[in-house]
Amino acid sequence: MFSKKKTIDEDYVSGEITKIEGDDVEVVMDNEEQISEKMTSSNVLKKYTELGKVMFGMLKDYRKGVYTNVPWFTIAAIAFGFLYILNPFDMVPDFIPGIGYIDDFAVFTFGLRFIETDLHNYLDWKLEEEE
């Protein structure tokens, strides 16, 4: 899935997002606990733990069909970010101390730029549902 010759930038991330399919979302959901654990155990990704919970919530609500006001690109961006975190042998392997999660952080950050508005819309919807 990931080529060592690529550099991580917005073009790379957006190109990879377009390759995400429904089965990839299922892989993410099946590995939610493992992804969450990697995020919380990494000093680099830890600050995104709460945001990760929101993103998993959006995926769950999307899959259940209760939240459909979201473009596929956003769902794919979330799935791609989580799949990248899940993959221990990405551009910079996660087992390299100190720098192993830097590329995961970059991919996650670039992905967030694409979907920030949709995440805000989801949170607004979630708050309205709770009232």
For the terminal residues, how far apart are their CA atoms?
Answer: 42 Å
State the helix count. 6
Binned, the helix content reads: 55-70%
Q: Ranges with pLDDT <50 over ≥5 residues? A: 1-5
Largest sheet: none
Overall structural class, as computed from helix and strand content, comes to mainly alpha
Essential attributes:
0% strand, globular, single chain, mainly alpha, 131 residues
Note the topology.
Blueprint: H1 10-17, H2 22-30, H3 32-41, H4 49-64, H5 72-86, H6 102-130
Helix pairs in contact: 1-5, 2-5, 3-4, 3-5, 5-6
Description:
- This protein has 131 residues and is mostly helical.
- The protein has one domain.
- It is 66% helix and 0% strand.
- It has 6 helices and no strands.
- The radius of gyration is 14 Å and the shape is globular.
- The protein starts with 9 loop residues before the first helix and ends with a helix.
